[in-house]
């Protein structure tokens, strides 16, 4: 495994056990009606998916590692070049039987984005791949999982078993992603039971909890996690709700702290593509550096 050389070298790492794929980003005035068409105003091909998480963590000084699949072809080449440019390590070798997948991201004038994803070799992990990732982890690492990996028929069960067997000195973070409703319960349940941090946007939190109120959703979802787990619910311009860990193994006797809102920062919305991933990466990077969850979330 290659390793970063910044100030995070030797300490806890952010390890993405998920997907880095290509993003074809097309800016449009608004989504067309069904059967219609619209002219894009700008197009860009970049690395995306969990790449944004790794870059955010790396730029904040925490060593970051990609522990997913990447293929042979233009998208795989794009992903590897992008990772190398940010000094992000890679665990698994190149797969020669296909290319990396891609996403078409339609970004409307207000910054909102809509995705269409096509998976490649990144959807075809093997038991041997998972074993390599498991043996390369070290105590204190923060492992990031995505709902995109869990929804895949092949990767999902493998990643669920991998996560359930991780030792307690590994911190597990799950971002359920927009496809959370499509993750089989047999895959999602064991992952949540081992998750130390769940970071979801308001829509994902609503789908998982059945609650429209993100504050209440954060509190309810915390009870589905490993003892001592915490939840972040991101609410766009309003920042996020933090349901901090509380009680640990004794939480049935010690009430968990009430969720608190962490305000956002005024910005002009240009493109929200990757915003959630970047927040997760920054949060994990700062946890790895010893910051408390409230400071890291802010």
Overview of this protein structure:
- The chain is of the alpha/beta class and 298 residues long.
- It has a domain of 165 residues: UDP-N-acetylmuramoyl-L-alanine:D-glutamate ligase, CATH 3.40.1190.
- It is 31% helix and 21% strand.
- It contains 10 helices and 13 strands.
- Helix 2 links the parallel strand 4 and strand 5.
- The longest helix is centred in the last third of the chain and has 14 residues.
- The two termini are 32 Å apart.
- The N terminus is likely disordered.
Number of helices: 10
* CATH architectural designation of the domain at 14-20 and 49-99 and 120-195 and 267-297: 3-Layer(aba) Sandwich
The general outline is globular
Question: Which class of secondary structure composition applies to the elements?
Answer: alpha/beta
Rg of Cα set: 18 Å
Fold topology:
Layout lengths: L13 E3 L3 E8 L14 E8 L1 H9 L4 E3 L7 H12 L3 E2 L11 E6 L5 E6 L8 H10 L5 E5 H4 L4 H10 L6 E5 L9 H10 L2 E5 H8 L4 H9 L7 E5 L5 E4 L16 E3 L12 H14 L4 H5 L1
Helix pairs in contact: 1-9, 5-6, 7-8
Summarize, please:
The protein has 298 residues and is α/β, with parallel strands linked by helices.
Keywords summarizing the entry:
disordered N terminus, UDP-N-acetylmuramoyl-L-alanine:D-glutamate ligase, 9-stranded mixed sheet, single chain, 298 residues, 4-stranded mixed sheet, alpha/beta
């Amino acid at each position: 495994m290659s390793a970063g050389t910044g100030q995070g070298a030797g300490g806890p790492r952010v390890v993405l056990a998920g997907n880095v794929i290509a993003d074809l980003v097309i800016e449009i005035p608004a989504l067309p009606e069904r059967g219609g068409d619209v002219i894009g105003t700008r197009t860009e091909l970049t690395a995306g998916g969990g790449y944004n998480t790794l870059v955010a963590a790396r730029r904040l000084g925490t060593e970051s590692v990609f522990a997913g699949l990447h293929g042979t072809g233009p998208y795989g080449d794009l992903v590897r070049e992008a990772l190398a440019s940010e000094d992000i390590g890679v665990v698994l070798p190149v797969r020669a039987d296909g290319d990396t997948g891609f996403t078409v991201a339609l970004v409307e004038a207000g910054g909102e984005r809509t995705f269409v994803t096509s998976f490649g070799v990144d959807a075809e992990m093997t038991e041997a791949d998972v074993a390599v990732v498991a043996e390369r982890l070290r105590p204190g690492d923060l492992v990031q999982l995505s709902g995109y990996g869990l929804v895949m028929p092949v990767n999902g069960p493998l990643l669920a078993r991998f996560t359930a067997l991780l030792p307690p000195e590994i911190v597990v973070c799950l971002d359920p992603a927009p496809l959370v409703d499509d993750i089989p319960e047999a895959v999602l349940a064991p992952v949540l039971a081992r998750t130390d941090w769940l970071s979801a946007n308001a829509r994902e939190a609503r789908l998982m909890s059945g609650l429209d109120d993100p504050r209440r959703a954060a509190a309810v979802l915390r009870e589905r996690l490993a003892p001592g787990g915490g939840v972040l619910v991101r609410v766009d311009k309003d920042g996020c709700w933090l349901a901090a860990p509380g009680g640990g193994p004794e939480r049935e006797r010690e009430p968990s702290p009430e969720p608190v809102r962490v305000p956002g920062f005024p910005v002009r919305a240009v493109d929200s593509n990757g915003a959630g991933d970047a927040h997760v990466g920054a949060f994990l990077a700062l946890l790895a550096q010893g910051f408390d969850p409230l400071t890291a979330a802010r």
